[in-house]
Design a protein that fits this description.
The structure is a homodimer of 586-residue chains. In chain A, 28% of the residues lie in helices and 24% in strands. The first copy, chain A, is α+β, with helices and mostly antiparallel strands and 586 residues long. Among the domains of chain A are: 12-104, OB fold (Dihydrolipoamide Acetyltransferase, E2P) (Beta Barrel); 136-265 and 531-554, BirA Bifunctional Protein, domain 2; 291-414, 2-Layer Sandwich (Gyrase A, domain 2). Chains A, B: ATP binds at residues 220-222, 229, 481, 533-536.
Amino acid sequence: MFRTHTNGELSLKNLNEEVTLSGWVQTIRDKGFMVWIDLRDRYGITQLVFDEDRSSQELMESVKKLGREFVIQVTGKVIERASKNPKIPTGEIEILVEKLNLLNASELPPFTIEDETDGGEELRMKYRYLDIRRNPVKDKLIFRHKMAQKVRNYLSDKGFIEVETPVLIKSTPEGARDFVVPSRMNPGQFYALPQSPQTFKQLLMVGGMDRYFQIVKCFRDEDLRADRQPEFTQIDCEMAFVEQEDVLEIFEGMTASLIKEISGKEVGRFPRMTFDEAMRKYGNDKPDIRFGMEFIPLSPEGKKMESGFPVFDDAELVVGINVENCADWTRKQIDGYIDFVKRPQIGATGMVWIKYQQDGTLTSSVNKFFNEDALKKIAEKFGAKPGDLMFVMSGDTYKVRTQLSALRMELGNQLGLRKGDEFAPLWVVDFPLLEWDEETGRYHAMHHPFTSPKPEDIHLLETEPGKARANAYDMVLNGNEIGGGSVRIFDKTLQSKMFDLLGLTKEEAESQFGFLMNAFKYGAPPHAGLAFGFDRLVAILDGNEVIRDYIAFPKNNSGRDVMIDAPSAIAKEQLDELSLKVETRE
Amino acid sequence: MFRTHTNGELSLKNLNEEVTLSGWVQTIRDKGFMVWIDLRDRYGITQLVFDEDRSSQELMESVKKLGREFVIQVTGKVIERASKNPKIPTGEIEILVEKLNLLNASELPPFTIEDETDGGEELRMKYRYLDIRRNPVKDKLIFRHKMAQKVRNYLSDKGFIEVETPVLIKSTPEGARDFVVPSRMNPGQFYALPQSPQTFKQLLMVGGMDRYFQIVKCFRDEDLRADRQPEFTQIDCEMAFVEQEDVLEIFEGMTASLIKEISGKEVGRFPRMTFDEAMRKYGNDKPDIRFGMEFIPLSPEGKKMESGFPVFDDAELVVGINVENCADWTRKQIDGYIDFVKRPQIGATGMVWIKYQQDGTLTSSVNKFFNEDALKKIAEKFGAKPGDLMFVMSGDTYKVRTQLSALRMELGNQLGLRKGDEFAPLWVVDFPLLEWDEETGRYHAMHHPFTSPKPEDIHLLETEPGKARANAYDMVLNGNEIGGGSVRIFDKTLQSKMFDLLGLTKEEAESQFGFLMNAFKYGAPPHAGLAFGFDRLVAILDGNEVIRDYIAFPKNNSGRDVMIDAPSAIAKEQLDELSLKVETRE
């Protein structure tokens, strides 16, 4: 047996017991006549002690040959520590070692295996197996496991069945690019890796498996942006014989139970906000509602302002936020935020500020156009009080909202309003069914072509399809979309109408979606579902937003695994077998 | 709300309640003035009743328009049935329907959705989504889910962490062929799909995650034999700071808990059998020990027989089995089994039979060479009693054992000794470390190159490597290998020795395994693991051996999904983007 206990469990209760421990040498403190070693494993750290008085000479010699990250096994007696460490569970004891067995030596690791390491990101990714020894990484993987277990048990208890859908499927002309897999046995033919099990979960509903879920790997061959992975994990779910309300109920319950598990807090019923309201109030369909700073429009609904300030009066929308207790900001601080919104990624041309000073007077960057009375009226609209600072932006509605939303989030971050241990979930509902695409001059499905319009909006499909809302919903947590889904169309006539709106001919609809349409001929039940981005969900539940930290072996921004050095060239024989030839363009 | 109850839960307790149900029309019995419908969903069947006296004329007209597999919603009152059906949970009640809502019509399905269907395998695979509506298919998927949940909870309770390892990895020169995935962003380079997470789980051990598991899809581009799938699911496990005994203990416990869950029976400690013993007693390294018929050798250990019967006397091994109570078989019955072993797949040239007749006399197919006294002596060796039948085969040791093993299994099947509801697990241990490959004239690792020899056999690596046994183990259940694994080598010197034995130069070892070897430099702990074939495990636990039945959307023997018609050709633009050209050989 390699150990009687782990390195995280011994305490004064075990005093005088003879124990065997195994693990890695974390640190060695060598005082010559005495040597202390911190022995580490997944469960914690136990202090080992060797001293000239109580240990054999042979043992003293052996211990002096050890180095960092050596793997050892020791047997010894649990004794009380002279100077206790209250920060760790084993801090009251140490092991007086009687036997030392070197299990494996180690070369000096390329970075320190400590909570705060000296290794940069690239180096740690290359030696990810060493990085995983560090608590912050290890703990995140364990956290992920616990969340997955909790989700599975919650949904299983509610009668959901986890069904494994295939990974080798057929290429479909959906949004992003598929990864493809050449088939040796079917030369010239390819499988595709699924971007989601969408088709299969709808088929399972046709098959009567009325509560389905799966925690499943999905794949997307996209040009990677920061923190996007070519392979990612979804909690994929679908239900039959349900309405939107049933779906929201179940998955609100699931998320609340995760939050309860982590924080011990009951978050209660999730607020619901329409897409329209979210855009008006936060300029964003995934608002972080842990803090206020709601948008206040200054221009009248659907009209332009008449203030005498041309920048405002020419704009489609003038809108601002009130930043509480920041009127004392210096010009430099304010300019910092003006520069922020003028960054090319955000693209504003400028921003107006108004200070409601502690003494009750008002001043602004547009004093030339607004006298104090006018500023006072604006402050009233904003609900501002002395000491507050207002920012106002103007421009085209969508653009200005997006810009102001970016500012609001930046302020939230800078002012410490986005607290990692606070959870503010909400549902955003009533998304538009369609999006107008300027480039192609036609409508696209905002969610996907099987998303059902709201029954009361079906008549709009004939007249103003752009105004029709969908039975589609997103779950938002702390300013991140963590899940989204929709009620599906299961009626043939409505589905044809949708295809028409999307500008698909009968033939195109048949070739792209014929397979699922065919299945729908045999008694498709009403159904609805959603999917959570599991990597992101886990990160956010853990008070973090970097999903890469929650993936054991992530890929970098070029889709490379720098640890195993994949992808890589393969042998010509392998290509021949697959009837393939590489033709790299110059 | 689409339903207040499912179709499997109403009983006399709900008498007179108004309920709403949804589901598929399973059957319609139309007596003109009365119509009964069996309404089906995932949970069961509820009988609906419509009659001229109690139902509106409109309702009677609507119900007559329904057909098989139409999706309907009904509201009505729970009433007591006149003629009860004790076979189903809802058999005492029916629903007097007041409202009928047609949710979706259905074309006539291509086969009947009944437990016994009229659809052939190919047709059912093509319309798998309809096949899943049938209880035998649906129940198997639900069974699979329950087993996965049980495994996850069992291992989680034991401190195992499920870690998702990547699907897009690097091609390795292991046994079977990898599926590869061209990388668009890295032209001319390919990912590979994992045949198993072997490397990653060993890296997790190096990373200190000392109890790992994962229920994970793996991929193998093999020429498919019957019931082999290109994608399959493994329960993949690894532990650090353990010896073989610790691994056996944990996974024996896991399997026993699954068996307990299914059968309510405690199977107790699993018997252990060395590979050598299994081969001697059953001619097979995965013996079905639900029944006896152990092999009895007639030729003396390591020597030839001297019986006067040249077929026996020339053979390396003469070995037989005793089939109890079958002495009354006709010549035709016996000839059937002789023909069985002479089939080319089995390849025996013949077989001797000996009948120990009820009256105590003995007769055989070799009376010319063996008088009754000689036969009696054989019968004694076999422990046969009057009424028993003996079969004896002879030839080269390995061949004859394999042939006799096939006969034993066939007899087990025919005599009903392989009972689906009986579980006989065992461990087969002490596998040979190496296999001699005639073709290449060198040793191959029987398990894999990181498998540790038994410490007491390490000296044999210098002298008789073929005789060295490995710390490798298989879990066998009812004659199927359901899992296997090994203690891994973690010592550099021993690993080099292994590479030498396998005929790998330093350069080859470096290029094939350098990556893992490199990780092992930084303090690899002693570790061991195993993997279960989950598809097979589930089938066998459910008393079945056809794994395809337990996969929601399986592929056929050519690796095709006939339902979605994959693999398939992809567009030239897609190939261009991947810098690939298809070159089909003539």
